[in-house]
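Hey Z.,

So I finally got round to the BIS(adenosine)-5'-tetraphosphate thing we talked about over coffee. Here's the setup:
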Amino acid sequence: MFNLILFGPPGSGKGTQSEKLIAKYGLKHLSTGDLLRSEIANQTALGLEAKTLMDKGQLVPDAVVIGMIDAAITNHPKARGFLFDGFPRTKAQSEALDELLNKKGASINVLLALNVTEDELIKRLLNRGLTSGRSDDTKEDVIRARLGEYHNKTASVADYYNKSGKTVLVKGEGSVDEIFDSLSAEIDRRM
Ligand code: B4P
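And the result:
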């Protein structure tokens, strides 16, 4: 199995690049943001709880997202590998992911961290908010709250995987294709 974490702050291009990477490498895409938005669209109890937090720019509780990832991994026993997008976002999520993969005799091969300046992140998200219909992209104070959550709770995930030499920084500004080529080069080196 080849398991990859695509990492970076909100708006760094994780979702954009994930679409291209799964097409090239045949990995199963697991985005906790997409899974949560699907729960919201289906108006489940979990979705309703998640929406309140997401609309404020806050993270959803660890137990909720870990449960979703556990189920998704179990539902794809034949996957040749997973691309984790927007997960893990806390140390507890990182430890839970390592344990889930360990049970399958697998592990994370690499964490690719997209590096983008804060001004560019805010610009991209406000721009997406004009067309996406995502309520967490339209207000600058909510975007700033998401960036705050990222700095306080998520940035340390890169340090966690760096302890085992798995974190690689990648320039996240430039054209989508240029960034895709940089990510692909790092994957090809390890696959
Ligand atoms: P996510 O869905 O993960 O969304 P995101 O962090 O905003 O990034 P996304 O992947 O969508 O954006 P992208 O960078 O591709 O999370 C949403 C919320 O869900 C969180 O705030 C949280 O509440 C909750 N949540 C999700 N996972 C969780 C977890 N594990 N634990 C707890 N809570 C969780 O793209 C942004 C924009 O930039 C796009 O418009 C794109 O077109 C543009 N763009 C991309 N690349 C570009 C480039 N090179 N140049 C110019 N623009 C570019």
